[in-house]
Amino acid sequence: MIVEFMADEVNEHKETVKKHRQMVENKELEAKRAAEKKVQDQIERRARRAAKKKAAEIAKLREDIEATFIGKGVPTEEILKSPLVEADGYGTKETPVIGVFGGWLGQCMMVFQTLARKYPTLDRDRKSGSSRKGTPKSSKSN
Fold first, then answer.
1. How many Cβ atoms from other residues are within 10 Å of residue 116's Cβ?
2. In Å, how far from its chain's centre is CA 2?
3. What distance in Å separates the CA atoms of residue 110 and residue 114, rounded to the nearest whole number?
4. What is the DSSP letter of 100?
5. Phi, psi of 87 (to 5 degrees)
6. Residue 53 and residue 60: Cα distance in Å, rounded?
7. Which pLDDT band holds residue 89 (cuts at 50, 70, 90)?
8. Residue 76: pLDDT above 80?
């Protein structure tokens, strides 16, 4: 009987200790989760503040552009009235002319740039060492 009583007391003590350990672990886990949530909330607040600041900067920049460039502009309708057929002005004086950037020199630059991009082998020397290796020397040219 005493042995059973002692065994019951030991079992109760073990359960009490187990419950206490579980309670301590739960508190630690809750504290860790609270700390992680706090850090996550701080990150989210910083991101919201940065987004709000950036939106304000963009709005200010748009207002500055509107005031500085667009607001000072003067609309003209003569440009829109010029038909595409008269792009060269038929050689008459004081006729609006639509031209290519750089004129004929700019067109030459664009052609050479296109050739260099599409045909990179055109830059190589024709008489490279590799082309001479494949041709046998004649005995008469010595």
1. 11
2. 79
3. 6
4. -
5. -65, -30
6. 10
7. low
8. no
Close Cβ partners of 100 (under 8 Å, ≥ 6 residues apart) = 106, 107
Torsion of CA 72, 77, 83, 86, to 10 degrees: -70
Q: How far apart (Å, rounded) are the C-alpha atoms in residues 82 and 85?
A: 8
Q: Which residue has the higher pLDDT, 136 or 58?
A: 58
Return the domain boundaries, the chain. 1-74, 78-124
CB burial string 1-22: b at 16+ within 10 A, e below: eeeeeeeeeeeeeeeeeeeeee
- Residue 101, token pair as written in the block: 């950037």
d(CA 89, CA 60): 43
Residue 39 pLDDT:
97
Contact 82, 96 (CB under 8 A): yes
Q: In 66-102, where does DSSP find H-type helix?
A: 78-81
* Contacts for 109 with CB less than 8 Å, ≥ 6 apart: 102
How many residues in total does the chain contain? 142
What's the confidence (pLDDT) of residue 107?
77
| Residue pLDDT, tens place only, 25-60 | 999 999 999 999 999 999 999 999 999 999 999 999
